[in-house]
Amino acid sequence: NCNMTETIPSPSCFGQEQERREFERLMGEALNATGLKDGQDNQPDNTCVICLNQPRNCVLLYCGHVCCCFRCYQALPQPRCPVCRQAIIRVVQLLTEVTS
Ligand SMILES: [Zn+2]
Ligand SMILES: [Zn+2]
To answer: Example GO molecular function term (predicted)?
Structure first.
């Protein structure tokens, strides 16, 4: 702190203090941003790749991909897997329980 330079008003010391606070504020923001990013990364990878909204709840056969919700499957312009472009011969709907 500034006790050493008590006789002389020390704007530089004050400036350092402000700088430190600014630094801490920025660090806090950076940490918050990182935390947010981690949260997104930790999301269960179970979201429909098309609407990014509904849980994936159907299996596309025969490629076997579970990549979209049944609604998006029905809305597909062509019956092709959005991941591998293989023709969809059949679709099995999964019964998903929402536990949370
Ligand atoms: Zn969807
Ligand atoms: Zn596929």
So the answer is: zinc ion binding
